[in-house]
Amino acid sequence: MGLDTLGNLLLAFASICALGSIVAAAMASTSGKGARPLATYLTYGTLAFTTLAVVLVVSAFLGENFTLEYVAYNHPTIVGPWAWLFRISGLWAGREGSLLLWEWLVAVYAAYVGHKALKHDDGLGFAATGVLNFIQLFFLAALFIPLNNPFKLLPPEYLDPQTGRLLIEAGMNPLLQTWAMIAHPPTLFVGYAGLAVPFAFALAALFLGDASKRWVQMSDRITVFSWLMLGVGIGLGAIWAYIELAFGGYWAWDPVENASLLPWLTGVALIHSMTVYRRREGFKGWTMFMSAVTFVVVLLGTFITRSGIVQSVHAFEQDPLSFWLFLSMMVGSLVVMVGAIWWRRDMLRGDDSFERVLSKEGSYYFNNLIMLLATLLVAYMTLAQSLPVWLGGGKTYGIDDYNLLARPLGIFYILVMTVCPILSWGGQGWAEFWKRAKGPLVGGLVLFAGLMAIFFRAMLPYYQPAGEMAFWHHLIAVAGLLTAALAIALPLFLFYDGARKRAAARGESFFAALGRIITKARTQSGGYLTHLGMGIILVGLVGSTMFVETHELTVATKPGSSTEAHGYTFTVRGLNEATEPNGDVVYTFELDAKRGSREIGVLKPKIVFPIQLQSKNQSTQKVALIQEPLKDVFVSFHGVDDNDAASVTVKFFPMQWWVWTGFIVTIIGTALASWPKRQLQAA
Questions:
Q1: What does R_g of the chain's alpha carbons equal in angstroms?
Q2: Residue 202 burial (CB count, 10 A)
Q3: DSSP for 471-513, written as a single string
Q4: Do the Cβ atoms of 503 and 511 come closer than 8 Å?
Q5: Residue 214 burial (CB < 10 Å; 0-12/13-18/19+)?
Q6: By the 8 A CB rule, do 191 and 233 touch?
Q7: Cross-strand bridge partners of residue 520
């Protein structure tokens, strides 16, 4: 039996199990308790067959079995002791394998939910399992579409029948053959797949007429975990773009980048809505609706990459079948959820009102409103090029258009986020608010003074006018730094104040009390750390996106030649050519870097001609970085002209390390908040 037949049989068996589990789960969720083991075991069967399909593809990569077209076109050319890791990463390097990975992850979540449902004999869990298996059916159906099927055979004329050697120049995109390829896509897909779980539980609760907070309690940890993994994936993608893609930045508002951002935005609103649902029995309809919106914008990422509806460096070949399949999934999910909410509208009525803006309810409401508005704006601007004119389409929006909206909206959102922890349920008067706010405000103003000193010393000197009004540009920057100072100061103050009070009340040392707060009140402490990280990131965003200085330089390749940029001197050591063991040809331009009289080190930007692209004379670039606490110096090499002069780009990114540091703090905070608690039926 060939790999193609075996692989498609596995997908077919997985589909049969998923279909059977849907029927069994529908019975198990109501009165048919006898069907409950069957629903779970069939869900396990879907996971088992999907797992075997994944193993089959991975084995083909590890064995370099090029009879599969997907393996032939996505195998890595890298060699060495770690080449096996890159071969495994071939699973998610292309269109077909990434979709198979996504389906497998949904199967893992479905099996976990089904296991919990069987363990606790819970009808709500079985209904959610049925919804997840219904979602799986769509992904499995997508895998049978020719352009999505990882088990297509390579035409025999492309292979040497004696040696199995490829007779075509094919392989994994050279830009993907980096450490980030091993980590970035899987973390994104773990997040994407997991965000189907709250949607499944919300729909299950509506189907069963259970508007209690049980569905939130059973899915909130997975929701936070999935949002965490999505954030990790986005962050790793930004690092990858910054150090590997050589375009000079970490976020380009590319349509596929935006597609990963959308569920992160709606996920923020969903998590906060779930908090109100769980604690106050409020925001019921809003929470369920946001679970559907989050799931739909997850699907939008697949829709964008596989439909050909927008142009993107990440997008795959246009496929009309995928277009209609994923469009029907998105529209159907929204229609079913809105219909179910309308059907159960009487039982979803709760106390969603708030008398005072200065209340947790008010801040959560504005949080959700801002996130939904931001999602709609980014989604519209991303898809505008493909929308009909009567829907405001036919336009293409660039980085400046996004920044014009994102900067003030993002700053306002972080300000709302900052204030939330010192607000109380039900609201408070200005006097009470001032009592809670004055300590953090004083600390924030002190920190703001320090940030303004950094602004004048390490940001403003790198400002390059780009057509916008300088006054407005600097006003936004200062507003961002003030907001960031408050966002950093408030959680630090709350940690200090809480530890001080606990130490005084219980006779503990300050650090012992602080440790108890962090480890015992994990949800609250994790939230504080997440807010702290967002404040640090905001400082980095202000510097590294609003005050970037670029120098396009030309320097002779003769050793000893030099060029300068903003106080840095770059002296040529030489231009070296080498052929890697895998056949890649690498040109390394070595430069000695000095700032004034201080030696900084040797920079080695590179141009690489990958073996699979050499016949097309195509290359990639590897940048060199000088990383300092208040800025990065980014150097890329573009080649040599007929006069033996090298073309070099030097960019200065102020506060770049603050972006990465804030990202790490945010991840730690979210991980702490999602750490499981001992509770019945926790999913």
A1: 27
A2: 29
A3: HHHHHHHHHHHHHHHHHHHHHHHHHHHHHHHHHHHHT--HHHH
A4: no
A5: middle
A6: yes
A7: none
CB 440 within 8 A of CB 489: yes
Q: Which two tokens stand for residue 674?
A: 């999602």
Contact 250, 655 (CB under 8 A): no
Q: How far apart are the first and last CA of the chain?
A: 40
Spatial distance between the Cα atoms of 634 and 147, rounded to a whole number of angstroms: 39
Q: How far apart are CA 440 and CA 490, in angstroms?
A: 5
Please answer whether residues 443 and 553 qualify as being in contact, where contact means their C-beta atoms are separated by less than 8 angstroms: no
**Torsion over CA: 223, 193, 667, 536 (sign):** negative
Q: Is the pLDDT of residue 505 over 60?
A: yes
13-50 per-position pLDDT tens digit: 999 999 999 999 888 877 667 788 999 999 999 999 99
What's the pTM value of the predicted model, to 2 decimals?
A: 0.91
What is d(CA 423, CA 359) in angstroms, rounded to the nearest whole number?
5
pLDDT at 171: 86
Q: What does the buried/exposed string (b/e) look like for 491-505 if buried means 16 or more CB atoms within 10 Å of the residue's CB?
A: bbbbbeebbeebbee
* Cα 191–chain centre separation: 8
The full length of the chain comes to: 683
Phi, psi (deg, nearest 5) at residue 398: -105, -175
